[in-house]
Amino acid sequence: MHAVTRAVYQLYLEQYHQDTCNINRCDWNIAWIDRYGMNFLRTLQKHQKINYIPGIELLSKKKNFVRIVHYLTSRLQHHYAFVPLSWDLPRMYREFVQYHTVMSDMESTSSQDAQKPTYIVKPGASCQGSGIYLIQNPKDLRTRHPSTSIVVSKYIDNPLLIQNFKFDLRIYVLVTSSNPPRIYVFEEGLARFCTQTYEFPCASNLQSIYAHLTNYTINKTNRAGCGGEKKSQNTDNFKWSLSQLNEYLVAEYGARVCAGVWDRIHVIIVSTV
């Protein structure tokens, strides 16, 4: 919020606090708000801007995103194959159990050494890794209360690893218009690493959050990770810039493969927006 305040002063705008200004009546230009309603949006004038794209919660809330993906995959399945199978619970609990039953039967008949299917469970509207855990059976769900919305996804158990560590990408995308679509992708970003080496999920390591979850908020608490307590205090050990990641990918796989990866990422961004 400090950056927003500085920008206000640089633009020579006068700042009003919410407790001294009725946002529905004041003659204002920019509003930084946490919540809004449709009635408020209908009152906006051309000279007034807010810090939200109306409807963005359809993408930012996991439960809403899953519902949209289900709708799209029913019509454009091949275009959204990059999204793991997911279920919005409790609404889709029956479908989830049916899928698990079919997959378990297939695994048990194909080979005695077949791996059990693994799922990642996330709160429907949360962040920073809060409440996330792994299961291999619907019976292991921690809650089935109808008022509790959770998202269950098929766990990607064969991720690309760097030095045996799992990682994800934090890519910053700016959408300035939806009609016509206008999208900008920032060249820099973050690769966030786990702080414990990855192992294929099984009953004995499902609770190893530092090996399976890449959330920074979680991994910064692992004092024994990334080579010991001293190293774990240095975020450079489990955060890379995208420039560092690109250098690694080019060195390991070649420039053509690296460029192909980013081409696919750009397609995913456009498909998501």
TrEMBL record:
Segments forming a coiled coil: none
Gene designation: TTLL13
Gene Ontology MF term list: ATP binding; tubulin binding; tubulin-glutamic acid ligase activity
Keywords, in A-Z order: ATP-binding, Ligase, Nucleotide-binding
A cellular component term, taken from the record's GO annotations: ciliary basal body
Protein name (database record): Tubulin polyglutamylase TTLL13
Superkingdom of origin organism: Eukaryota
Claim: Ligase is one of the keywords in the record: yes
GO biological process, one term: microtubule cytoskeleton organization
